[in-house]
Every structure is written in C-alpha cells, then in structure tokens.
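Annex B. Sample input.
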Amino acid sequence: MRLLSTKILSQDFRDRLLMHQFSLVEQSFIKISFIENPKIDQIFDHLIFTSQNAVNAVLSSSKILKMMEGKTIYCVGKKTAALLVENKQKVAKIAQNSAELAHFLIKSHKKESFSYFCGKLRTPDLEEILPTQGLHIQPIQVYTTHIQDHPLKSHFDGILFFSPSGVRGYAQSNGFENTHSFCLGNSTAKEVALHTSQYTVAKEPSESQLLLSLKNHITLHEE
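Annex B, continued. Sample output.
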C-alpha cells in the first residue's frame, strides 16, 4: 500500500510503517513559526495546551515559563502531555480532544478562568463550550500555522492526515479521488469529510491507533 503522510513523521513511526511493508512518501503541508515576544501581562492559574506546537512555542519563551510556575495544566493528547512532563511541568488532566477536555473542565471547575496557549488556526471547541457554562477562557496565540501548497502528481492508496490545517494544505492542489484518508482525530476527520466520504478515524489520537486503522482497512478490503 502506497501512503502519503501529510507531515514529516517521527523516526519511530516511520520505521513501524516500513516494517509493515507500507510504501511511504512524506510531505509537510503546514509550517509552524513561533510568535516572538507575545504580549502577555498575566495568565490565570489554570492553563490549557492542545498541541505540541504550543508547548514548544512556550518552551522557547523564558518569560512565559516564569509565569507558568505553580500553575495547573490541562492538555489534549498524550504526546502534548509527555512534552510538558519532560520539561518539568505538571499535567493534571489529559483528554483525547478539545471537546472532551471542555466537558471535563465544566464538571470539575465552576466559574474558573483558563489561559489557553494556542495557534491562530485552532479548533474552536474550548472557546465555544466553556463560556456557555460560566467559565472564562483567555486564548494566547503563541505560534502561527502557515498553509503550504504542494501539488503532487503521484497516486497514493492512502493519505495520513494529522490536523485540519494539513487537510486544507493538501486540498489546495490535490484531490481525494480513488484513495482512502486516515485521520488522527475527529477534528481532522471533519475537515476531510468536506472533500470525501472515504476516510477512517483512529479510535484514539495516537500513532499506534492510526497504524491499527491502516491494518484494519487492509484486512477489511482483502476479504
């Protein structure tokens, strides 16, 4: 099966795909740039991270790291949490997606305020759900996502998508005909669904579950 990954993969995940005899091409359709010296006067006691990009952006700012001392952190994704923990940050909750995190915060924190470190192109779930239940959220943009256009001439049996932005970048000059899309999470799948009905979503937003969805798809179509 010939696969296109819409981002550059970790060495571990690349090796696992090749071990399962997938043919692989990697092409990033987004580029991340950190915002230098974001204007932040204060942050709340509760912090939210939904991506590794936001974590890396904050880690590059000694000013923000100083402000984060003693704060409680909630995040989306095991890799986001692992990156925080590796850098001596304490994570109180890990959710699979933004909507799940929003509902957890509503149940466990009444009328609290949250600082949300994020990019401009972000899933709106947190900012839409929390205020309806009396929770205040302060978005702090610490990085920018740039869509990159890469027209591709080759055909792929499957395409790996990891973010809505990656889907938008791919869709600018490429089609979804005669291929199957494999999505890391529900937000990514919603974006893919605007272009095709031929897609599957990993049960959890992890590389292991994405690989499992690939294997299950092949097994189903071999029968």
